[in-house]
Structure formats: C-alpha cells, structure tokens
Amino acid sequence: MTGVNKTLYIPLYGKSYVSKKGVILQDKKAEEIWEREGFALKGKSKSKWLAYYMGMRSAVFDDWLRNKMEEDEKAVILHIGCGMDSRVLRVGTKSHLWYDVDFPDVIEERKIYYTEDDDYSMIASDARHIEWLDDVPSNANAIVVLEGISMYFQIAELQDMLQVITDHFNHVSLLMDCYTEFAAKASKYKNPINDVGVTEVIGIDDPHVCEDNTGLSYVKEHEMTPDSMVNELQGMERTFFKKVFGGKISKKMYRLYEFESV
C-alpha cells in the first residue's frame, strides 16, 4: 500500500485497542483484523492516547450516523475512505443501501474480511475520481461520512468531490473531520502519520470554505472528545487525557464539521 493508504492501520489499531479494553467502542472486527494483519506501527502511531482518540472519533461518527439513519429510513449511506473500518457492522444497514469507498488495494484487502450483500457494497476507486458515483442510486437522499480523509485532499479537490456528491442526490447530510491549519503545518514535523510515510496534509479552519460551489451549508461543529466518552477512562488516564488531548486542546488540532445540502 502507499503511504496514505497505510494510514488506515492507525485508526484500526486504535479501535482494536479500545475494544479489547472494553471502553468507548466495541469493535470485534477491528480486533480480529488487527490480530491477523497488524501492521508494524511504531512511535506515536501505537500510543494508547491516540488509540483512545481514534476510538472516540469513530464513536462520535457512529452516534451521528445512527441518528441520521433513524431520521431517514431510505437514505443511501456513503462511507468514503472506509479503510478497514467496521462501521457497517457496528451501526448496521437496517433498510438502507450502504456503500463503502476506498482505493482498489484497500478494497481488495477489505474483501478478505467483509462480504457484500443486497444492502452492502464496496466500491474500489480513488474518491476524487468521482465516476464511482455512477454505481450509486441518484434518486435518493444520502448520509455521507468522511472520517480521517479530508486532510489528504487539496481544498479544490475536496470542493469538487462535494459538489458532485450534492448534485448526485436529492439531499445530503455530511459529517467530516479536518485538521486545523496549525495541525497541518505541524504535521510535517510531528504527527503519527509520519510513521507510515505521510508528511503533507491540508488543514481547514473555516468550515464555510466547504460551502463554496458545493451546494452544502455548514450546520455546526461537533465535539470530538465528549465528556461522556472521556469519563469511560479510569483514574490518572482520564485526568491526563482531559488535560492533554480533550476539549480546547483537541480543537486546536482537529475539527468535526456537519453540513447539509441547501
């Protein structure tokens, strides 16, 4: 896999770690995959603090997605940049058509562990090559998850992809996490993704940049380290995480933005 694709092992390890500890996120599939395929992470990539953060981020996305799926029982689900994530199992397809999208080599590996059915499909494509949407029904609403991938797009690339998505569907609800501009600059020198060979990323401070020519409107910012999840940690771990990784510290580095189509 390329450097960017190898970044999928970092959240996979994090979800496996917290699941084994029985906190934040239950993800037996992540445990299974990591046990069999665990990439040789090093340095900060295998930090338990980063693992807690990865687990919380995924749990926040899961909760948002469940709520949106309850609001719209017929919406199409797009998980773009799915990696090896088991969100489709954690959340369940219910009455929805669900599409996981990632690079061909990622999907090839993913198919070892996941099986397509009438409700669930995997699409092998660079998400920026938006022709993959031809395989997705257009006469529908969509709920879109962009977790851990916006930082690998140039702003114009991201805007182009978002525009095509909103044009394709009747209505779009979207949740996306981003690095801040400060975090993107710092990432060149100090970021766990450096351990898998990635140094160039993009940050977004102003969510309204994602409105430009995309058909999307900014709704609100979500908390990436909610107290309810931080409080699942114990003793000094909880205290340390709150002071070093939670709240304002988290927002200095990461943002989680929700959008709706106009």
Can you give the mean pLDDT?
Answer: 89
Strand order of the largest sheet: 3-2-1-4-5-7-6
Q: How many helical stretches? A: 11
Strand percent estimate: 15-25%
Report the order of strands and helices.
HHHHEHEHEEHEHEHHHE
Query: What sort of overall outline do the alpha carbons produce when their principal axes are compared?
Result: globular
Task: Bin the helical content.
Answer: 40-55%
Give the N-to-C terminal Cα separation: 37 Å
Main beta sheet strand tally, sense and closure? 7 strands, mixed
The SS-based structural class is: alpha/beta
Low-confidence stretches: 1-5, 191-198
Number of strands: 7
* Cα-atom radius of gyration: 17 Å
Task: Describe the 3D structure.
By secondary structure, the chain is α/β, with parallel strands linked by helices. The protein is 40% helix and 17% strand. It has 11 helices and 7 strands. The protein has helices at 3-6, 9-21, 28-37, 48-71, 87-91, 104-110, 155-168, 181-187, 227-230, 235-244, 247-253, and strands spanning 76-80, 98-102, 120-124, 141-146, 171-179, 216-221, 254-261. It has a 7-stranded mixed beta sheet. Helix 7 (155-168) links the parallel strand 4 (141-146) and strand 5 (171-179). Helix 2 crosses helix 3 (28-37) and helix 2 packs across helix 4. The termini are far apart. The model is unreliable at 1-5 and 191-198 (pLDDT under 50).
